[in-house]
Amino acid sequence: MTETSHKKPPLSLKLCAPRGFCAGVDRAIQIVELALEKYGRPVYVRHEIVHNKFVVDSLRAKGAVFVEELDEIPQGDQDRPVIFSAHGVPKSVPADAQNRNMFYLDATCPLVSKVHKEAEIHHRRDREILLIGHKGHPEVIGTMGQLEDGAVTLIETEQDARSFQPRTERQLAFITQTTLSVDDTDGIVAILKDRFPDIVAPHKEDICYATTNRQEAVKAVAPQVEAMIVVGAPNSSNSQRLREVAERSGCRVSALVQRASEIDWAKFDGITSLGLTAGASAPELLVEEIIAAFSERFDVSVDIVRTAEETIAFNLPRELRDVALSSASAAE
Ligand code: 0CM
Ligand code: SF4
Predict the structure, then answer these.
(1) Domains located in the chain, CATH noted
(2) Which of 185, 158, 189 is nearest to 244 (CA)?
């Protein structure tokens, strides 16, 4: 065999930054880890703590038990802690936990809780509330569940915004899911504002900083590359949106993969440039795994394309601060 036949084709890999874990995911995972450290195993978690199988499997191996509803927790374990996922829960869930005398920790992202509070304020001010979001997503179920059934109308599409008829004479207000497409949401909001100029908007965007920053980074990279890989799970809303943004920004191939083993190599045959990012719930380890898999087939050169700096961090729940402090000082 000649030397040239061994040569791998060159690949310019543009790594989006920011990518991967956000402050809310970091906090949620820490809550499970610290709860295991403080209370021992098992610790129950209602719903995937974040939408990532690798994260969930790692925590399961440490003693976390994942359930979808509180009534799946066996009678004998009702004294064990239960943690609510980063996506938030309807008001009925903590109420149910209290009725069962369960000890719970809330890992709802503070930026999701902020939207819950907006819903309550609008309701108190007697406004009719619209929620822009995706039906059936746990965050949407949680946000709608802050108020009684029927108090919030879900708007999923521009068509919904066009056909929506207020049910009351009350002033309108809208809130949104935190992980939406910035562009799609702008389109829906423009229609609502056009039809209802007095509609009350969030003071500060409900789409979170992490969602916005990761979409911006993909927009910067996508026009420079033939293909984009987003590391993330199919049930991760923010990861799905990144894949769409890449596709709409002109990438010929735009794939969402959980692990390197899911890559459909035929799609990447002959490419010379690739963009790579990760949803807010995808660990950096999995990004490294993808780079290693490409490096086996291509002569990869990596450039980082940074469009924002992120410094935000959230406080842990009071109950876990002591154990957080002692594990931090043990690590020093
Ligand atoms: O909301 P989404 O489906 O994007 O959740 P995720 O677990 O993938 O990301 C973090 C969050 C939240 C809320
Ligand atoms: Fe919070 Fe945004 Fe991260 Fe969701 S994606 S956990 S809302 S910071």
Answers:
(1) 3-21+209-306 (3.40.1010.20), 23-109 (3.40.50.11270), 111-195 (3.40.1010.20)
(2) 185
Q: How much is the pTM?
A: 0.97
The answer to whether residue 216 is catalytic is: no
- Indicate which atom in ligand 1 lies nearest the CA of residue 22: 10
23-39 and 53-62 are packed helices; what angle lies between their axes, rounded to 10 degrees? 10
Q: Which of 118, 128, 139, 226 is catalytic?
A: 139
Q: Which residues line the pocket of ligand 1, CB cutoff 6 A? A: 24-25, 50-51, 86-87, 109, 112, 139, 178-179, 236-239, 279-281
Mean pLDDT, the chain cut into blocks of 10 residues (332 residues total): 73 98 98 98 98 98 98 97 98 98 98 98 98 98 97 98 95 98 98 98 97 98 98 98 97 98 98 98 98 98 98 98 88 76
